[in-house]
Amino acid sequence: MFPDSLTFSIADWVNGWVDALVTHYGDLFRHLSDTLLQVIVQIEGLLRATPWWLLLIIVAGIAYHATRRLVPTIVLTGLLFLVGAVGLWDKLMQTLALMLVATLIAVVIGIPLGILCARSNRLRTVLLPLLDIMQTMPSFVYLIPVLMLFGLGKVPAIFATVIYAAPPLIRLTDLGIRQVDREVMEAVNAFGAHPWQQLFGVQLPLALPSIMAGINQTTMMALSMVVIASMIGARGLGEEVLVGIQTLNVGKGLEAGLAIVILAVVIDRITQAYGRSRYEAER
């Protein structure tokens, strides 16, 4: 048995810090929660109000623009049609709205942090262990303070998803910029390009495949959180899986699970296609 004299606990310190955060900034977090909830509700309402056939046409257009191939476009559109055919179209739209907002927030946070990491070794040294913690920490652990700050519902699900899904985008943005050929950067410097011109004119375009891979991974990880998100009040396909577990309804859970897989496949193929160069896409 480990000696009691050598044990210690950080639980009281963490609880005190979270309590102080709720006490002093509770109103700010509630305002942020209400604003974000309105955004989610508006996007979800727009998706659910759009005719299903129009959404399929839009997805087909995006898929063809990304892949430039007819067969993958038909397959991806047909897979989404199957989700509607089993009666899960409305749940699909709820999940899609949640995932779009979470992915957008992760992109807004992740790409700038990745750029800063690529430009600062010190920041990278500090941030990489934090990213490791964000990815390996069980999601239920950071759900506790998120629930205290935002309560049950879609908003804490969004924040929990962002915490889990943002690290790959930060890492791959940093990696993509660092892997830009030094000779190219030396040539750009020789022409006297401003740092902002170097970033937006050279580094980001050359790092785009890596950044798109990061967005792809972030989206996939966001989708992997939908069942956990349903446990704290977020509706959608994850809720159907949860109901299937609670009622031991294997068929219901399998249908919702396959719908999540189909959504993941559609998004994965489209983002991967956009991540490839035009030459690779047309081969």
Automatic annotation (TrEMBL):
Family designation: Belongs to the binding-protein-dependent transport system permease family.
Places the protein is found: Cell membrane
One Pfam family, short name: BPD_transp_1
Alphabetical list of SUPFAM superfamilies matching this protein: MetI-like (SSF161098)
Stated name of the protein: Glycine betaine/proline transport system permease protein
Keywords: Cell membrane, Membrane, Transmembrane, Transmembrane helix, Transport
UniProt KW Membrane keyword: yes
Cellular component terms per the entry's GO annotation: ATP-binding cassette (ABC) transporter complex
InterPro entries tied to this protein: MetI-like, MetI-like_sf
Membrane topology annotation: Multi-pass membrane protein
Transmembrane as UniProt keyword: yes
Molecular function GO terms recorded: amine transmembrane transporter activity; carnitine transmembrane transporter activity
UniProt record, GO biological process: choline transport; glycine betaine transport
Occurrences of domain ABC transmembrane type-1 (ranges): 92-271
Residues that span the membrane, as ranges: 45-63, 70-89, 95-118, 139-166
Organism: Pseudomonas duriflava
